[in-house]
Amino acid sequence: VYGPLHVLQSYRMNDVKTSLPIIFFKLKRSIVGFLPVLSWLPRYSIWDYGMPDLISGISVGIMHLPQGMAYALLASLPPVFGLYTSLYPPLIYFIFGTSRHISIGTFTILSIMIGSVTERLAPDSDFLIYNGTNVTEEVDIISRDFYRVQVAAAATVLGGLIQVVLGLVQFGFVGTYLSEPLVRGYTTAASAHAVVAQLKYILGVSPKRFSGPLSIVYTLADLFMLLPETHLPTLLASVVSIVVLITAKELNTALRQKLLVPIPIVVATVISFYTRLSKTYKISVVGEIPSGLQPPSIPNASVFSEVVLDAFAMAIVGYAISISLGKTFALKHGYKVDSNQELVALGLSNTFGGFFQCFSVCSSMSRSLIQESTGGKTQIAGVVSGVIVLVTVLKLGSLFQELPKAVLAAIVFVNLKGMFKQYYDIVTLWRSSKIDLLIWLVTYVSTVLFNLDMGLGASMGFALLTVIFRTQRLESFPISNLSAVFLTTVICSILLLHHV
C-alpha cells in the first residue's frame, strides 16, 4: 500500500523528469539566441554555399581596402586604422549577427561623426610645435594622430557598450521610430558634410578647422578664400580619379562584372610610385603604413565623459542604418533578423574593435549590395573579406604608401553617388506626403547647419511634434506612440543637452 508521502514523491519525480528537457531546451535556445552562428554553422554546406561565399568575400574584401583608408580620412585618422576597422568588427559580427548579407565595417556617416569628435577634442591648435619663445606653423602630427586614435577608440567602445545594454534590455524597437524620411534626410545631409570634408584633399589646400553649429558654412567660406592657392597637380589627379571611378562603376552596372574600385586604386598607386608624384609635384600621399597588427589596448577612460553624448548618437544612427538594411535583405531572401540581437552584435563589434584601435562601424550599403549580388549566402563571406584585409595589413600595406590622398577623396565622392540621388526625395515626398517632406527638409537643414549630433536631436524632436500633430488628441494617442514619444524625448534631451 502506497502512502500519501510516496505518491507525493512520485509526482515530484515525474515533474523533474518532465521539466529537465524543458530547462535544457530553454538553455539551448538562449545560447543559440546569443550565439546565432551555432544555429547555422554546424549545418553549413560547403558544396552549396562555399564557392558563392568565397567569391562574395573576395569581392567585398577588395572593396574594404580603398573604402577603409578613405573613410579613415573622413574620421581624421591615419588610413591604416581604416584597415584595422575593416578587419576585426566583421569577425565579431560573424559570431553574434543574425543577418546573412550585410557587410559590417567603415561607413560614411559614422566616419564623419567620429571625425567631428576627433577634431573637436584634438584640434591642430593643440599640437603646434614650440621653438623657443616662438610658435611655428608646424603641427606635431604624430602626437595629434596618437591622441585622435585614443579619442576615436574611446567613443567607439562607449558607443558599443550602449548598444549592448540597449539590446539586452530589449530596446531593439528604437530603430522603428526613426522614420524613413528622417533617416534619408539625415544621411543626405551627412553626405554634404562628407563632400565638404574631402574638398581640401581634392583642391590640395589647408583650410582652418571649425566645429559646432554652422561649421560647414565657415569651412566653405574659408575654402572659397583659398581657391587661388589650389594645387593644380592634386586637382588634376582628383578629377582624373573621379572620372575613372565613375566610368568603372557605370561599366560594372552595364556589364554586370565586379571590377569596381580595385583597378583605379592599383593604377593610381603604380603611377604615383613611378612618377614620384609626392616628390616631383608635391602631391600628398598616404605615407607609411606599418606592417603587422596593433596589440590591444585599454581605451582612455578619461575621455569617456567628453564623448558619451557623441557615442550615444553614433550608437543610435549606426543601429538604425544596419537594422534597416538587414531587414531589407531578410525580407528579400525569406529569413528573419532579430532586432535586439542585432543591437548586441553591433555593440560587441564596436566594443571589441575599439580595443584594437578601430572606429565606429555599421553596415555599408555599397558593400552589402556587392555581398548579396555576388551570391553571398552567409557571413562566411565576411570572414573571407576579413582574411583579404588581414593579408593586406600583414604583407601588402607598403604597396599603398604612395597612394595619393586625392584618390581616396575621389573614392568618397563616387561612393556618395547613391546619397546624392536622395535629393530626388523632395519631389517624391511632395507628391506623396507634405508632412514627410517637411520632416525630410527640417532634418536636412538642421543637420547641415547644426552639425550631426545636434541635427539628429533637432530632427527627432520635430518628428515627434508631427506625431503629436497627427494624433491631435491625447485620448486617441496609441500606447505604442506614447512609448515612442517617451523614448524620443529622452534621446532628444540627451543630444541637445550636449549643446546647452
TrEMBL record:
This protein is called SLC26A/SulP transporter domain-containing protein
Subcellular locations according to the entry: Membrane
Species per Swiss-Prot/TrEMBL record = Cyprinus carpio
Q: Which residues cross the membrane?
A: 20-42, 54-73, 93-114, 151-173, 230-247, 259-277, 311-331, 343-366, 378-394, 406-424, 444-469, 481-499
Major site of localization recorded for this protein: membrane
**PANTHER family registered for this protein in UniProt:** SULFATE TRANSPORTER
Q: Which PROSITE patterns match?
A: SLC26A
Against InterPro entries, the record matches this protein to:
S04_transporter_CS (IPR018045), SLC26A/SulP_dom (IPR011547), SLC26A/SulP_fam (IPR001902)
- The answer to whether keyword Membrane applies is yes
Please provide the record's keywords in A-Z order: Membrane, Transmembrane, Transmembrane helix
Q: Does the keyword ATP-binding apply?
A: no
- Identify a single GO molecular function assigned to this protein: secondary active sulfate transmembrane transporter activity
Describe its membrane topology: Multi-pass membrane protein
State the gene name recorded for this protein.
slc26a6l1
SLC26A/SulP transporter domain boundaries? 53-443
Q: Highest taxon of the source?
A: Eukaryota
Query: One GO CC term of this entry?
Result: membrane
